[in-house]
């Protein structure tokens, strides 16, 4: 079997969510040719599911907000292991990126004086999230999509990238296949931008769609790039828990931003009982103050439900474990109670949270304007990813760039809600700009036909094993159980060592996976190809989590429950060890990378915001 | 666990194929997409089906369930009669690819042929605009569209009369056009195109599109009829025609 189609671009963007689309727009605007590969149809990427909003310190609702406050909030949320330069660029540039969307047709909710409205969200000091009800992600992706289709970007829908191709250590393009016909296609490119999103499908309970299989992480890793911070996985505190078939689907933090409260089976607002010291000065002292905050009272402090996601998720776990959970193993999230406070509350809730209303009505037969929801933690986001240069988004491989969730740095140990959508557009733009510059400065790379043939043969192997091979769906399902049970919200050394043993067995089963039939739109075959990506990121998460013997942000260890300042000085790096790769499937090397010292002016910004 | 039978279309891009019955265990809260996934994992690993978000937000899993255009992920089993087989087939207005997957590329070709958003100059020196919430409410309704294309699938102008092959853009793109035409900042004029190129006149407001819209957008009443009214007053109203003649 050989290549059936060839394409050549200056810049190839892999992934068509917010980051990929924004990167494509920027690159094509620089006058280079751009190809865009998406795993699904255009406009269906996981960005579409983002709900609450995008964080940008525009100060439209509270004029005390500015980039310094946003920067300090992001660093505090990330427990100071963030790439501070990324956090700085993000806070400074997000407002312009949001306003640009309006010029491209986005229709954000408005303030009474006609500006873009901003809402409260966990960990953000002031109302900061530009939003459209609770469907902000749809607005973002559709705006970028509708802008892109007029620009001359060539879009390859329903294509899956199998491997990146190198030319003497520099990026040369990618091997992909088209789902409709199952044909192998060679994309040669002077620069490649990975914008492939997250890894949620490595876990049993997740808010992620089927696409979140860590493709970009694994492609970069196999090509020799470094991954960092892979131990930091965000478990969003509020996913649906009932009925079983929808377990994990996201319930936006916006519910809490609009006044929703968390209660246990005894009816207690348990979040008031556990407020971390570094957040005490900013947190409401009673329910009344919390309510006033959600209604825009500038003298009030935020309710404890809006503490960072890692903390809220662990508090919910604790309530459930202590036997104070809801009937289906979660806790109660109540927005209906606001009828005590405002007239026509049901209508208000339906207007502010239309898709939540719709989602619970359709999928759980529950009216959120009348009854509390049941919620529990769900795997939502990975802070870790491809190590990139803050300004250019260049990875450690020349010509390979990364942006959005598959890149790491901005979020540190924990991401604040709303910082993802703004991350996509800030760093998507930068990746597009610098990838185009790289393409202009460098010639056409050569593609190694031998490497292409090897990759094609390997990807077709499942057909030769046929139905006698392992069922790929079963292998994926067993992997999800392993990660959920052993490397989840609460981690201990022994369980993670057990996970490594199981992962090794799963690697062997994945290598023996087989399918029957032909290559046209074959989901079983596709699952076979996803497995090695899922396994690579799962192993990186596990090995990084073992290396970090402390608790910080999204990474919580029962055997090391405290934060250790010594671990705040470095990021954990995982990379391919080519010598070891010959004997072990992943051949993974773990190392530590010192965090550069923050410049004095940024340290001062953080100190100023500590009160 | 109780069992239900799913009668799922299996076929290729040549249109040939047949329904195959898959008896499957079902449990509380399941949607049709869960059943399709269970069949995929346990009985038919090569069963082709599009899906992404599983929460009614992406519009990927459009199909016809017991003959009705619906999202697989938002159709709960307790809304169906499980004592008889549940038929699941692809959208029939689009060319088949495999099993439940169809070629919806027509929709992606249409959009770039329509005039894009063209905002007026910024209202404020910092490059921003001012709009009141009341003025954008109706545009926000249209922008809820998840591009599932169920409205295109059910529209008889597409499905029966194939007018999309002659330029008819279908309900999805009347909604897209309405969102731009009614956008407070937009300055482009699409009425001539809607009348002459895009086949707005073919729609005889049977409201089938509105009935299948999973986002409950009032496609006919709020998008298509107002566009038709604008076309009528521009091109057919005797008073405005006279004024236009006098002005030129």
Task: Sum up the structure in keywords.
heterodimer; A: alpha/beta; 7-stranded mixed sheet; 5-stranded mixed sheet; globular; B: alpha+beta; two-stranded antiparallel sheet; 35% helix
Helix/strand order of chain B: EEHEEEEEHHHHHHHHH
Identify the quaternary structure here.
heterodimer
User: Fraction of residues of chain B in helices?
Assistant: 25-40%
User: What structural class is derived from the secondary structure elements of chain B?
Assistant: alpha+beta
CA-based gyration radius of chain A: 23 Å
The tally of helices of chain A reads 17
The largest sheet of chain B is: 5 strands, mixed
The mean pLDDT of chain A is 95
* CA(first)-CA(last) distance of chain B: 76 Å
Shape of chain B: elongated
Proportion of residues in β-strands of chain B: 5-15%
Shape of chain A: globular
**How does the major sheet of chain A shape up?**
7 strands, mixed
Count interface residues per chain for the largest interface.
A-B, 67 and 60 residues
Helix and strand topology:
The complex is a heterodimer of chains A (611) and B (248).
Chain A: E1 5-14, H1 18-29, E2 34-37, E3 54-55, H2 67-77, H3 84-103, E4 118-119, E5 129-130, H4 136-148, E6 154-156, E7 159-167, E8 170-178, E9 184-194, H5 215-223, E10 227-228, E11 233-240, H6 254-257, E12 261-263, H7 287-294, H8 309-321, E13 331-334, H9 345-352, H10 354-364, E14 373-382, E15 385-387, E16 400-402, E17 407-408, H11 419-441, H12 449-465, H13 472-486, E18 490-491, H14 493-511, H15 523-547, E19 556-557, E20 570-576, H16 578-581, E21 588-594, H17 600-608
Parallel strand pairs in A: 1-2, 1-9, 2-6, 9-16, 15-17, 18-19
Antiparallel strand pairs in A: 3-5, 4-5, 7-8, 8-9, 10-15, 10-20, 11-14, 12-13, 13-14, 20-21
Helix pairs in contact in A: 1-4, 1-11, 2-3, 3-11, 5-15, 9-10, 13-14, 13-15, 14-15
Chain B: E1 3-11, E2 17-25, H1 32-42, E3 62-65, E4 68-71, E5 86-89, E6 96-98, E7 101-102, H2 105-110, H3 133-142, H4 150-154, H5 156-159, H6 170-181, H7 191-196, H8 208-212, H9 219-235, H10 238-247
Parallel strand pairs in B: 1-5
Antiparallel strand pairs in B: 1-2, 3-4, 3-5, 6-7
């Amino acid at each position: 079997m050989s290549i059936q189609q060839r394409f050549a671009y200056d810049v190839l963007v892999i992934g068509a969510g917010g980051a990929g689309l924004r990167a494509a727009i920027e690159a094509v605007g620089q006058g280079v040719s751009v190809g865009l590969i998406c795993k699904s149809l255009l406009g269906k990427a996981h960005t579409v599911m983002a709900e609450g909003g995008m964080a940008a310190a525009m100060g439209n609702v509270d004029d005390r907000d500015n980039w310094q406050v946003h920067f300090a909030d992001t660093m505090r949320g990330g427990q100071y292991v963030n790439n501070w330069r990324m956090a700085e660029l993000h806070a400074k540039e997000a407002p312009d990126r949001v306003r640009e969307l309006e010029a491209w047709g986005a229709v954000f909710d408005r303030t009474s004086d006609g500006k873009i409205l901003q809402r409260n969200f966990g960990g953000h000091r002031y109302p900061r999230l530009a939003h459209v009800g609770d469907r902000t992600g749809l607005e973002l992706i559709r705006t970028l999509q509708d802008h892109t289709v007029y620009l001359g970007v060539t879009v390859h829908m329903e294509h899956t990238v199998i491997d990146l191709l190198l030319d003497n250590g520099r990026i040369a393009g990618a091997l992909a296949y088209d789902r409709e016909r199952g044909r192998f296609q060679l994309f040669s490119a002077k620069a490649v931008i990975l914008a492939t999103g997250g890894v949620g499908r490595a876990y049993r309970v997740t808010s992620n769609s089927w696409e979140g299989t860590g493709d970009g992480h694994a492609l970069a890793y196999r090509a020799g790039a470094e991954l960092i911070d892979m131990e930091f996985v965000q478990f969003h505190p509020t996913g649906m828990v009932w009925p079983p078939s929808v377990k994990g689907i996201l319930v936006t933090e916006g519910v809490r931003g609009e006044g929703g409260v968390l209660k246990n089976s005894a009816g207690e607002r348990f979040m008031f009982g556990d407020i971390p010291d570094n957040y005490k000065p900013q947190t409401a002292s009673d329910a009344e103050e919390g309510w006033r905050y959600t209604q825009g009272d500038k003298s009030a402090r935020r309710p404890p439900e809006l503490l960072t996601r890692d903390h809220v998720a662990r508090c919910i776990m604790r309530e459930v474990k202590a036997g104070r959970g809801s009937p289906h193993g979660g806790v109660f999230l109540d927005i209906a109670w606001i009828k005590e406070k405002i007239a026509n509350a049901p209508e208000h809730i339906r207007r502010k949270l239309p898709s939540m209303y719709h989602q619970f009505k359709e999928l759980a037969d529950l009216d959120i304007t009348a009854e509390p929801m049941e919620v529990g933690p769900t795997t939502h986001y990975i802070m870790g990813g491809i190590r990139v240069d803050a300004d250019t988004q260049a990875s450690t491989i020349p010509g390979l760039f990364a942006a959005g969730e598959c890149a790491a740095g901005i979020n540190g140990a924990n991401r604040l809600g709303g910082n993802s959508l703004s991350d996509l557009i800030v760093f998507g733009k930068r990746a597009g700009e610098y990838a185009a510059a790289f393409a202009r400065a460098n010639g056409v790379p050569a593609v190694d036909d031998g490497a292409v043939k090897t990759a094609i043969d390997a990807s077709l192997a499942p057909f030769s094993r046929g139905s006698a091979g392992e069922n790929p769906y079963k292998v994926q399902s067993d992997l999800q159980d392993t990660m959920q049970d052993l490397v989840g919200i609460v981690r201990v050394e022994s369980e993670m060592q057990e996970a490594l043993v199981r992962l090794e067995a799963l690697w062997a089963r994945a290598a023996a996976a087989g399918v029957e039939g032909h290559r046209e739109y074959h989901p079983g075959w596709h699952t076979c190809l996803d497995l090695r990506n899922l396994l690579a990121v799962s192993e990186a998460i596990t090995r990084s989590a073992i290396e970090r013997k402390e608790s910080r942000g999204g990474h919580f260890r029962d055997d090391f429950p405290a934060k250790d300042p010594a671990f705040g000085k470095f990021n954990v790096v995982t990379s391919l060890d080519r010598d070891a790769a010959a004997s072990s499937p992943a051949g993974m090397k773990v190392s530590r990378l010192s965090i550069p010292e923050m410049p004095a002016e940024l340290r001062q910004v953080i100190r100023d915001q500590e009160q | 666990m109780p069992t239900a039978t799913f009668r799922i279309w299996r076929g290729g891009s040549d249109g040939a194929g047949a329904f195959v019955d898959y008896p499957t265990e079902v449990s509380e809260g399941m949607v049709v997409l869960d059943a399709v996934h269970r069949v995929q994992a346990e009985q038919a690993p090569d069963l082709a089906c599009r899906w992404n978000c599983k929460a009614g937000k992406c519009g990927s899993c459009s199909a016809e369930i017991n003959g009705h255009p619906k999202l697989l992920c938002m159709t709960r089993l307790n809304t169906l009669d499980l004592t008889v087989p549940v038929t699941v087939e692809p959208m029939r207005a689009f060319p088949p690819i495999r099993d439940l997957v169809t070629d919806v590329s027509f929709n992606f070709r249409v959009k770039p042929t329509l005039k894009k958003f063209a905002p007026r100059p910024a209202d404020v020196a910092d490059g921003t605009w001012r709009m009141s919430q009341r003025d954008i409410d109706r545009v926000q309704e249209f922008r809820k569209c998840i591009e599932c294309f169920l409205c295109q699938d059910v529209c008889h102008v597409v499905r029966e009369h194939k007018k999309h092959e002659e330029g008819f853009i279908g309900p999805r793109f009347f909604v897209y056009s309405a969102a731009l035409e009614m956008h407070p900042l937009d300055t482009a004029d699409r009425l001539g195109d809607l009348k002459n190129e895009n086949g707005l006149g073919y729609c005889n407001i049977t409201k089938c599109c509105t009935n299948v819209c999973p986002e409950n957008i009032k496609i006919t009443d709020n998008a298509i009829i107002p566009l038709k009214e604008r076309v009528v007053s521009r091109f057919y109203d005797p008073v405005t025609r006279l004024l236009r003649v006098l002005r030129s």
